[in-house]
Description:
By secondary structure, this protein is an alpha+beta fold. It contains 4 helices and 8 strands; from the N terminus they run αββββββββααα. Strand 7 (about 130) and strand 8 (about 135) form a beta hairpin.
Amino acid sequence: MVGIMIQGTSSDVGKSLICTALCRALVNRGIKVAPFKSQNIPNNSYIIDEVGSDTGTPGTKVNGLGLIPVETRFKNEKCTSQSIGAFIPGDLTSLLRVKGFEIHLGLTKKLDEASSSFLKVGEREAGIFLRSGQIIGTYFQHLFHNDEWRTWWLNRLRLKRGLKKKQKKSFSEVRTRAYDELADWLEQELNVDELLQRMREWNNET
């Protein structure tokens, strides 16, 4: 089955709601799905909200899509930390360590011990790595900001589709260029100097 994209005209118009409902409807029909979005859509086996932080009712169990064989338990204390991870799967150990951060209430453990963990962060194993990297689950934010990892992952997809590998690009340089282009576009439509002057005047009035 080909992939589909749900798009909307702005935030809060129901894209996530429609995607979640569609995924559940497909799973109920025996179809395997792999939703992708930078927010929590439970691909795991189930979530147990021990403290009611998400559902409002302590001890609530919510079934996930079952794509990743893990259990997640929501706790009171939120993890907020900058992290450095080392890859665990054998064909990734030659890559550099990745830098990122974690922000989450959940603690996740594998239900299938035969599954490979994805990263080693400090003394703990984190995430899950399935089907030679076709499925990856992790709390690690900014993973794709790491140039070497991103290039390795994208080149694997390119080779599977008969495309040539591409050389590594600096995400920081590309992002900076994009920000500059966006700012240039804005200045064509908005007198930023005039806006700043108005802001100074408003500030003096208060």
